[in-house]
Amino acid sequence: MTDDDQNYSVPKYETIESLLRQGSQKLQQVGIENPRREAKLLLQYALGLSAEQIIGIARDQPLEAERYRTLLARRARREPLAYITAHKGFWTLDLKVSPATIVPRADTETIISTMLTYFPNRQQALSVLDLGTGTGCLLLAILAEYRFAWGVGVDINPQAVQLAYENIRRCNVEKRAWVFAGQWSDALDTEWRFESVVSNPPYIPTTDLQTLMPEVRDYEPFLALDGGSDGLEAYRALCQRLPLVLKDNGLAFLEIGINQAHSVCTIAQAYGLQVLAVTKDFSGIERVVVLRYSV
């Protein structure tokens, strides 16, 4: 094949409809849900355009296709879209993401909606500790809702801590948020106490990790997913520490996996914590355990 033949077979410029059609077909072939939507998001990112701007492009206008095809090939290998674009929406925020952390999920927003029920005063100067902060999504979403609140995020992965700090700057809350590297609350001064603790800990049983969808299994950090042999290892560590970091009558909001509510509640009670509720996510699945610590 000559260079001319090769250039002809893979055009350098194509119309938006042609690119979207090819992208949708390629993503559909590898089993990606909503392939047309993802193909459009990839094209927006490749061209550096907003959704509104891409709508304004003439259907027959030739577009440079090479970068889009490169991004499309990555997504076809099941690399998460958020890792390709390096950002993800969570609650009301747009956050930076990287392979150092798991991608923020809509299910985790249940922690925020539950907190708003238990702390209805948005003017409260709430103190918050986010254990296993990752991108910082939980801490930052809480600070967005409570404009006088302040908080601390902790993560065992220094790269995750750096990412969380970048998101703190992105959200302009440097004076209200701090992040530290360490294992759970071990990174904190022993005198620190908080009115609220939130956490989305690893809760996938080790033997189940290989059954996860490729985007998770092949790309997201196992450290943030692996919950040990029964998926409950992190909850034992967290519940042991909660009495040391919560103020009297402080509340903890812990995300849980499917069918883990009873086990997590049992662990919490063994460490002297009161179970207030188990709340469901948008799909009706039990997702958040609400705990109280009383002296």
Quick description:
This protein is of the alpha/beta class and 295 residues long.
* Overall number of strands: 11
CATH-scheme architecture of the largest domain:
3-Layer(aba) Sandwich
Number of helices: 12
Beta-strand level of the residues, as a percent range? 15-25%
Order of helices and strands: HEHHHEHHEEHEHEHEEHHEHEE
- Measured as a percent range, the helix fraction is 25-40%
Largest sheet: 7 strands, mixed
CATH superfamily of the largest domain: Vaccinia Virus protein VP39
What Rg, in angstroms, do the CA atoms define?
22 Å
What does this structure look like?
39% of the residues lie in helices and 20% in strands. With 295 residues, it is an alpha/beta fold. The protein has two domains: 3-77, Helicase, Ruva Protein, domain 3; 85-293, Vaccinia Virus protein VP39 (Rossmann fold). Helix 9 links the parallel strand 6 and strand 7 (177-181). It is elongated and about 70 Å long. The N and C termini lie far apart (78 Å).
